[in-house]
Automatic annotation (TrEMBL):
InterPro entries: AB_hydrolase_fold, Esterase-like, Plant_Biomass_Hydrol_Est. Pfam families: Esterase (PF00756). It comes from Chitinophaga silvisoli. This is Alpha/beta hydrolase. Transmembrane segments: none annotated. Keywords: Hydrolase, Signal. GO terms for molecular function: hydrolase activity. The keyword tRNA processing does not apply. Gene3D superfamilies: alpha/beta hydrolase (3.40.50.1820). Residues 1-18 form the signal peptide.
Amino acid sequence: MRQLFLALALLAGNSLFAQDGYVFKEGLASGPCHQYGRTALFTDQLAYALSEGQLQAPGNGSNSFDGEKWQSVSAGEDGTFSGKALTNGYLYVTYNSPKAQTAILNISGHQMVYVNGVPHAGDMYRYGWMFTPVQLKQGVNEFYIRTLRGWGRQGLRAKLTFPKQAVYISVADSTLPFIVKGKDNSGLWGAVVVINTTGRALKGLEIKATIQGKTLTTTLPDIAPLATRKVGFMMDATAVGSDHNSLALALSSQHKVIDNKEIALKTVSAGEHYSSTFVSGIDGSVQYYAVSPQLNPGGKAPALFLSVHGAEVQAINQANAYKYKDWGVLAAPTNRRPRGFNWEDWGRLDALEVLNIATQDFKPDPERIYLTGHSMGGHGTWILGATFPGKWAAIAPCSGYPTLMGYGSADGLIPDSPKNNTEAILLRASNPSNTFKLVNNYKAGGVYILHGDSDRVVSVDYARQMKKILADFHPDFSYYEYPGGEHWYGDTCVDWGPLFSYFKWHTIPADSSVKVVDFTTASTAISSKYHWVQVLQQQHALEYSRVQLRRTGNTISGTTANVAVLALDLNDFAGDIVLDGQTIKYAGGEKTLYLEHGAGWRIGKAPAETDKGIVRNGTLKEAFNHRMVFVYGTAGTVEENAWSLNKARYDAETWYYRGNGAVDIVADKDFKAGDYADRGVIIYGNATTNKAYALLMKNSPVQMSRGKITVGDKLYTGDALAGYFMYPRMDSKVAAVAVIGGTGLKGMRAAEANQYFAGGSGFPDYMIFSAELLKGVETEVKTAGFYDNEWKLSAKDEIIN
């Protein structure tokens, strides 16, 4: 009888629930059938079946994947699905809609969901803030919800609601500043989510923000159909006088108010911890950082402490953990979310943005800039410290792990060491995340390692490992295990007196006083400079480049590895430069000396701005910078065009939720390169289906159109091929273009996974694969690799299967 009820519930959508809201209570679990992580390789049997058009509605006991069976599962009284049956699989639920209509889907605790075959982003943080407009058809609507690992402990909830307003504000996920008395509060930025449940793009919406009678109006960017977008707005808080203030928001279209919301604002006195907002150069979204102000500033330039938080920790809580320091100010960036990007990729860029803002605002002593963090922030300290030597007088990782891969955060299919050429290329794309290969960079400053000896979350073995590594070469590091300390043993596990005393002893040396250089980088566009030495180009992109030099009197001598062009900032130097055993006579006179490495070393010039170098050095992910815009195709078939818009929207949803971000979504027919100058562009589709392709990708050595892909003189044909590849915008000195698509619907659906947003994941300049890769067949990566410095194919830097 129960099985009959379950079957009827799945088919009929369980009409026992009220029509204004529906909580999913019954479903089917597939069993394990996918594995995603921080790698370009993944497996997903259900996604493969969907791409091939072979996915059939399951029933209780019907065959799933890899010998598994679909089995019925029920949610608890609070609507939570849980249990081992859901781990690394899919939960199948249905809703029987009496009519075609738009609903808001709210799921928490999932990677993503297919709604009638259309992908939508997941709430991997389990915050419950993901409100996704979905188009329901009359009759049975199918939802395949991709589950996370560790299901039995966390669980998943899913529901549908039917909004009374077509467009409205959601304040559940707001980004707002603190109002600090005595500061200039005239032009503050905030952000809220606007939800568009209509089938048309919204243009010209406005938000009026009013605080204590002061009103500012902000015109909002376009919001795509059936989409959520986090939008920034300005506010004037100069009239604030009390501790209790509210912000009134009015959303209007053509001067007609369509929604109102009111939000309480946090007001603090000068000298208290606070949050400050800014507009990010990464994507134009509103972000925030937190501050622990200097205690009793005396007019002398303060020290600056950059503190990076752990997983699930808000930046303001990170700042609150520190007592005020009389000799410095502390700034805590967000990593774009409490988990965000693990301080890799856009988390790394967020940290640099906040460092730059804090340097401008607080004008610290440039010799006294320090880096610290806890847990995931301990990893952030290790990776930022290794990536940017010379920026920090000293670093202090607390309860941290050195690498994602070593800690188990990679969750991917590629091991630390590759077992074939495909894995070697993909691991190479992740080289900037490998702190062990950058470890010599720690010699640039002091290192203080703090870890509780009873930590069961991040084992103290990681600290002991780094202690052993540093002991082999580092002349100035300190190590302390806190007796009985667990992962969090109170504020002292970050605000530790001896740690800040250690900081006080250290300063960043002037370039002229640095006589020995030992610098390693994996990408010149990420990190290129250490004091007076800069690697401008690599011989092979994303392999490790190392420069070891010693300056004595009128001689600079040393060795290099994987360096094509080197720049030396030389003041009052003339003499011999001995590189790799070759002597170059330098008469002086130039502030910067450029050295090129061909058959040997010679005095040369800076690389062309259009070449690979310190601004653009490749990898797919580089295109997702510089206020990227997503361009979907309208020149294909109805099905291809629908895929393109759905995929662009899916990526925008994922970027919003994973990184607190916002993206412009534009149709190819509306895209004009001049309107988006110097911005990264993501093209969805191929040359046949997307009109923007010809504008931006005509010179690329990788070409994709309906039915075929060419990579130089190699030709791949069929409708089940997918591609991720990038190329520089030739009309820009900074931006790049990426293509996400396929040769047909099968290939396009195979390209739907967007783990390129996972922090630390590695994607080369180009990667062509077939849908069979989704079944775990690595050889279905047809080719992948890195361009040379002139953005041409390089036989030495690619794999062909």
